[in-house]
Design goal:
11 helices; five-stranded antiparallel beta sheet; single chain; Coagulation Factor XIII, Chain A, domain 1; alpha+beta; binds heme C
């Protein structure tokens, strides 16, 4: 059997990428195949050798997790011999039965074959660990190699968190495919981000290629009116406002300074170093509302260069999404419900009550209602309403914005009036509006409200409207979003009194 065929069969995951060249040379591996090979070789070595040659090698100095050491030259028989792969000590010792020693579980023939194919492919490298910190280090090193003029537009997408030491290689190819479909759905452009590392678990994305970098697409809304200057936000930032997995990088981490200089150049709306590619793939799936939002902004970016009226925005679907949010949805998330750290820093309950004090999820147009709110600690809060057209408003409340510990309050509009929804702006028979309450033990800043420069909802059909968001600008006066709790309360309004 020719070598290439045998290896392909044994490996399974190393499917032949191109028609095999005539002769014995295996088809060149794709980046994904090479990456999977590196991940799998690491997993085999870790499993059978890690106990003694692991993170802190207990026997001999060999650590199989240290790729540099494995491929280093200068030993009579290198651990992994890049020039004569079969003459690698690691492979020889396994084959002659001396390692792992004693009656320990041995690698299967398939696993040994994996190591051989890996060595023959010049042993593509792998990190010691697939954790966030390693990913960050790989990313910062890659940034150092890039043209400084491009850096503000570069973003990184990671698969590393999907690699688990106790699992076989996950189907990263499928995740990459999903990511590419998502990028297409959310930009209209077919773009494949480049892997930057040998395991192909970190990808560099130039947001210019997707039209996700266009400035001047958002206004900041104050008292219902746009301010004259555009709000500094680009389409990509929408992802950050919803992103639930931002890794925390402690200030004293030696990488923090380099990360800060990247974030300073990138001017992102939230300081998120990189995104999980599988999250992006799902959040921007072709049917996902966030994909439509981004795509509509790309289209808007194209038309702002021309004269004429702006296009209509995407269909409005605030707060649809997983419930409870997967991961920790940020306070600004548009497609998640309640959000809080886990465990939540305090208990908070918000419900809509009718005039007879009974809770409800539905009111009629013109019907009076209040919000009953209680927290198990003294907190302050900000209340927003999100209308069925997506419009976000800061909702003034009667009686101040402090909740005393365990003392329920019934919120209404000032002065001492219940809330009333006077009409359904979309013209439909019923519509869902949302109250969003953000509470924290200290002062809660009033968020900035932003709206895309799409045509007004009143001029559009099919529930299309500009993209609205609320943003907590640079943390002011000790406000820590990670210590805040947000509740989202949907309220269906119908024309006929229910
Ligand atoms: C139970 C512990 C144990 C396990 C598991 C184990 N080894 Fe070892 N290994 C040792 C010890 C002990 C030595 C040192 C032997 C000596 O110096 O005589 C060694 C030495 C080696 C050396 C030579 C290192 C040098 O510094 O010269 C290689 C190569 C090696 N092992 C490969 C492996 C591989 C590959 C595996 C997994 C397939 C493995 N070992 C699993 C205990 C282990």
């Amino acid at each position: 059997m020719p070598r290439s065929t045998r290896f392909a069969l044994l490996l399974g995951l190393v499917a032949v990428a191109a028609p095999a060249a005539r002769g014995d040379d295996p088809a060149p591996l794709t980046r994904r195949q090479k990456g999977d090979l590196a991940i799998k070789a690491r997993a085999v070595l870790r499993k059978y050798c890690g106990e003694c040659h692991g993170d802190a090698p207990t026997r001999s100095q060999l650590s199989v997790l240290d790729h540099n050491q494995l491929v280093a030259k200068g030993r009579p028989v290198p651990f992994v011999n890049l020039d004569a792969p079969p003459r690698s000590q690691v492979i020889e010792f396994i084959e002659d039965g001396s390692m792992p020693p004693g009656g320990r579980e041995r690698p299967t023939p398939e696993e040994v074959a994996t190591l051989k194919v890996w060595a023959a492919a010049r042993a593509p490298s792998y990190p010691r660990a697939f954790d966030d910190r390693t990913t960050l280090a790989v990313m910062l090193d890659d940034l150092d190699r890039q043209d400084p003029a491009a850096v503000p537009h570069l973003r990184y997408l990671s698969l590393a968190h999907l690699v688990r030491d106790d699992q076989l290689v996950p189907d990263l190819k499928a995740v990459e495919g999903q990511l590419q479909r998502a990028l297409l759905a959310a930009s209209g452009k077919s773009v494949s981000p480049d892997p930057v590392d040998d395991t192909a678990t970190l990808f560099r994305l130039d947001i210019r290629a997707l039209g996700w970098d266009t400035p001047d697409l958002f206004d900041r809304i104050e008292k219902g009116q746009p301010r004259p200057d555009a709000y500094p936000m680009v389409p990509f930032d929408l992802l950050l406002l919803d992103y639930p997995h931002a890794p925390a990088v402690p200030e004293k981490d030696p990488l923090a300074g380099r990360l800060q200089s990247f974030l300073g150049a990138a001017k992102q709306l939230r300081p998120v170093p990189f995104l999980r590619a599988d999250w992006v793939g799902e959040a921007l799936a072709p049917t996902a509302p966030l994909a439509a939002d981004l795509k509509s902004l790309v289209d808007l970016g194209r038309t702002t260069k021309k004269a004429g009226p702006p296009p209509c925005g995407p269909r409005v679907r605030p707060f649809v999404g997983p419930e409870p949010a997967r991961g920790r949805a940020p306070l600004t998330a548009w497609y998640a419900g309640d959000a809080a750290a886990d465990p939540a820093p305090f208990g908070l309950k918000v419900e809509v009550i009718r005039s007879d004090s009974r809770p409800t999820s539905e009111v009629g147009v013109g019907e009076a209602f209040k919000l009953r709110v209680v927290a198990d600690r003294e907190v302050r809060f900000v209340l927003l309403t999100v209308l069925a057209t997506g419009d976000v408003r800061i909702q003034p409340v009667d009686g101040g914005t402090v909740l005393k510990r365990d003392e329920p309050r019934s919120l209404g509009s000032p002065p001492a009036k219940p809330f009333v929804i006077a009409s359904i702006l979309t013209g439909a028979e019923s519509a869902t509006e949302h109250f969003v309450l953000v509470a924290a033990e200290g002062e809660v800043p009033v968020p900035t409200i932003v709206r895309s420069r799409h045509a007004d909802a009143a001029d559009c059909k099919n529930n299309q409207a500009p993209v609205w968001r609320f943003v907590f600008d640079a943390p002011a006066g000790g406000f820590d979003p990670a210590r805040a709790v947000r509740k989202v309360v949907p309220l269906t309004v119908t024309r006929k009194k229910p």
